[in-house]
Amino acid sequence: MSFRVHAAILILAAFCLSAAEPGGAQRHEFSIQNFKTESGVVLPEARIVYGTYGQLNAAGDNAILLPSHYMANLHGYEWLMGPGHALDTSQLFLVTTELFGNGRSSSPSNTPEPFHGPRFPIVTIRDNVDAVHRLLTEDLHVKHLKAVIGFSMGAQQAFQWAVSYPDFADRVVATSGTAKTYGHGIVRLEGQIAALTADAAFKGGDYTEPPRKGLEAFAVVWTAWLYSQEWWRKELWRTNAKPGATFESVLEGYRTHFIPGADANNLILQMRTWERHDVGKTPGFNGDVERALRSIQVPFLYMPSETDLYFPVTDARYEAAFMNTVTLRPIPSLWGHTAGAGSNPADKKFLNENISEFLGLKIVPTSASQK
Predict the structure, then answer these.
(1) Which of 164, 197, 265, 314 would you label with 89, given CA atoms 20 to 30 Å apart?
(2) 93 — phi, psi (to 5°)?
């Protein structure tokens, strides 16, 4: 698999988009004045970029939320949309939101003084969820969701929705993500931050040009965790690689083009958000993640990847033991973390079929899928 394909899967490329975007999405922005973060810092303005697909029906009961993952934009779930997939945009109203720190929603790179660059406050998954709750109810007038579906940091948000707003969605789906970031995940993220910030050009976040050596080191560390060890041993990177590609050329591609154009402070902010994720710290649960998990009332489809090194399947099994409404269905894949975003045909099929069944939706076949 080439670095270009990976970038496409995770929708990491940064580019300017008009109101009408590829894939049938409509781009919007929602602004919150004087947004108070969990840390206590008040942002004079917090902006959320989001996309919509389809139309809200008269009954208002066909909306599904798909919150974004690490450094992703509003196109991050198109592997689930359209003919042959779980989500029929002619019947459903899909809302895809972008996390704070991705470079388009409010971020270190686009916020004016005094919260520019490294001075941007650390925001939590709960901050993001609470802001999107306002977006849905105030901007879109959506009072209830058919489902929340999230991958990776989107799965973190899905868990938080189930705890913070237990009656807001009929069902919740989480792929390749957990209800809390445990110690080993924090160590991994700290290693990636250390690699990035070791570049002298970083200058404590006040760089005048991108800290390229640090960005490349960060990318290599990140890539080491992205897929399973067996994925590398079997050289599954060849699946979508260009003719003549070698291991060395693929690695160099990840090193230099992992997240094209990404700002270093943005990358760090979203890692800090990831690190602090813990549904047990939701008000009322006193840091007790097991109690928070027991509080989940809605049917919950939990789909960890069997070979995920970011969110190990053992963490998912631990959490599922405290969930009364859970269906635990691991993804049988060698594609590591990326399996939860349908990074290859087998995983994409597995996800679409299981999610459509769980939501009670019928996949509309395409001519290709009927063969």
Answers:
(1) 164
(2) -110, 110
Region of 12 (left: φ > 0; alpha: ψ -120 to 50; beta: rest) is alpha
Nearest alpha carbon to residue 309 among 149, 189, 158, 174: 189
* 349, 329 Cβ separation under 8 angstroms: no
Task: Return the active site residues.
Answer: 152, 308, 337
Residue owning tokens 């008009």: 18
Residue 156 to residue 182: CA distance in whole angstroms: 12
**Six-digit token pair at 84?**
């042959």
pLDDT confidence of residue 48: 98
Structure tokens that stand for 367 in this block: 């001519």
Spans of the chain, pLDDT less than 50: 1-18, 368-371
Burial tier of 343 (Cβ tally within 10 Å: 0-12, 13-18, 19+): buried
CA atoms within a 13 Å half-sphere pointing along the CA-CB vector of 242: 7
Give the distance, in angstroms, between the CA of residue 70 and the centroid of all CA atoms in the same chain: 5
Residue 293 has phi, psi (to 5 degrees) of -65, -40
Q: In this predicted model, what pLDDT tens digit does every residue of 76-115 receive, in sequence order? A: 999 999 999 999 999 999 999 999 999 999 999 999 999 9
Q: What angle do CA 28, 32, 33 make, to 5 degrees?
A: 140
Amino acid letter at 170? D
Q: Which domains are present in the chain? A: 25-190+261-359 (3.40.50.1820)
Nearest one of 307, 365, 302 to 328, comparing CA atoms:
302
Under DSSP, is residue 190 helix (H, G, I), strand (E, B) or coil?
Answer: helix
The pTM for the full model equals 0.93
Amino acid, single-letter form, for residue 108: P
Backbone φ/ψ region at 175: left (φ over 0), alpha (ψ -120 to 50), beta: beta
Helix (H) or strand (E) holding 357: helix 345-359
- Residue 28 CA to residue 102 CA, distance in Å, equals 15
Instruction: Give me the pLDDT at residue 23, please.
Output: 67
User: In the numeric block, which tokens belong to residue 343?
Assistant: 């990074």
Side by side, which strands form the sheet with 300-303? Answer: 26-36, 42-53, 93-97, 63-67, 145-151, 169-175, 300-303, 326-328
